[in-house]
Amino acid sequence: MHHKDLTTQHTVRRTAFLAFNPPAISEAEIEAVVETLRSDWITTGPRTAQFERDFAALLGVNGALALNSCTAGLHLALITLGVGPGDEVITTAMTFASSVNVIEHVGARPVLVDVEPDTLTIDPPCVEAAITPRTRALLPVHYGGHPADMDALLTLARAHDLRIVEDAAHALPAVYRGRRIGTIGDLTAFSFYATKNVTTGEGGMLVGAPEYLKQARILSLHGMSWDARARYEAGGSWFYEVLAAGYKYNMTDIQAAIGLVQLRRLDAMQARRRAIAARYTAAFDELDAVQPLVERPDTQSAWYLYVLRLNLDRLTIDRDRFIDELHLRNIGTSVHFIPIHLHPYYRHKYGYQPDDFPVAHREYHRLISLPLHPGLTDADVDDVIAAVADIAALFRR
Ligand SMILES: *Cc1c(COP(=O)(O)O)cnc(C)c1O
Fold first, then answer.
1. Quick check: is 256 in a domain?
2. CATH of the domain at 36
3. CA-to-CA distance for 200 and 192, rounded, in angstroms?
4. Is residue 106 within 8 Å of residue 75, measured between CB atoms?
5. What is the pTM of this model?
6. Is residue 1 part of a domain?
C-alpha cells in the first residue's frame, strides 16, 4: 500500500489499529491447552473424541469427524463419494481456492458458475445450465456465513442424481429454512482456521451420513483400520490393517482442547456477531455510497464476514483506494474473494475470461470485508462506521 501518496484531509479517529479478524481466545482456551500439554496424550485422543461428540450434539447429527482442516474435509468428502477423473463438480467462482483445489486433487474437473447478486452464493439457474452427463456433485459455499439456496440445489441434485458437498467454512452456526447447515447435503465440511467463527488454530470437521464418515475416518489416518487412540488405549490392540492409501488429516488433542472451549462460548460469540452486524447494517442502510449484503428471510447467517459493497457510481475513488483510506483511519479490512477464474492457475488451465461470471466479477471490484468478531466493542464498531461515512462523504461523486 502507498499511503504516503494519499493526501486527504482525513481525521484519524483511532490511535490503535483495528485488526481485521483476530481470533477470540480467552484464558479458558489457554488453560485447556496447558492442561492437555501436561497430560500424557497430545495427538488424536480423548479430547478429539469429545470435540466430535460435542460438535455432533450442537448440530443434532449422529457423528462428526475432526480433521486438521476444512480443506481435508472437502477432499475426503469427494473421495468418499467416489468423485474422480472424468467427473465434473459444479462450484462457485466466488470462493476461496481450497473449495476448487480439492476438485483438482481428486482429478475431477471443477465447473465454475456465477453467484446471486444479493448474497453472493451459488446461483441455482447457473448451476442447472452447467449440468452435463459428467456432473457428479455440487459444491456450494455458504458465503460469509449466509446459506446458499439449498432447496433449489437439492431439487437439481435429485433430478440429476448428484451428490452435494457443502463448504461450510463460514457457516457455523447457520440455519436455512429451519435446518442447520450440516444437516442438509450429503457431506458438509466446517473450518476452524484462525479467523473462523470457531477456531482451533487450524482444524476442520466433516459431518454426513455414518457410512460416509466411517470411510472418511479411515482415510483421514493413513487408511488404517483402527485409529491411534484405539491402538494405544488400555485394552487396545497393536494390530491394524491398512485398508487404503490414506492421508494424514487427523486433528490433535491440543487443537480439540481449544475447540471444546470455543464451542461452549459459541452462543455468546454469535450473539455478539449478530449485534455488530445489525449495528453496521442500520448505519450503512443510511449511506447511498455503500450497500450491505442481504440476509434472506427464513435464513440465519453465521455472520463470519461483514461484506460491504461500494456503489462506485456514487464515489470518485475505487475499492482499492477506499481500502487504503480505511487503513489510514486505522481500520483493517480484507476482500473475500478474488474470484477463482481470475487466478492464474485456473485462468490458464480452463481459459477463463474475467466476465465469464459477470456478477462475481462486477461484485469483486466493489467488495470490502469489514472487521467482524466478538471482541469488537461498540466504540470500535462506531469507529468503523464513522470511517466509512467520512470516506463516503469526502469522495462523493
Ligand atoms: C477458510 C476457508 C476454507 C478452508 O478452510 P481450512 O480449514 O483452512 O482448510 C475453505 N473454504 C472457504 C470458503 C474458506 O473461507
1. yes
2. 3.40.640.10
3. 5
4. yes
5. 0.96
6. no
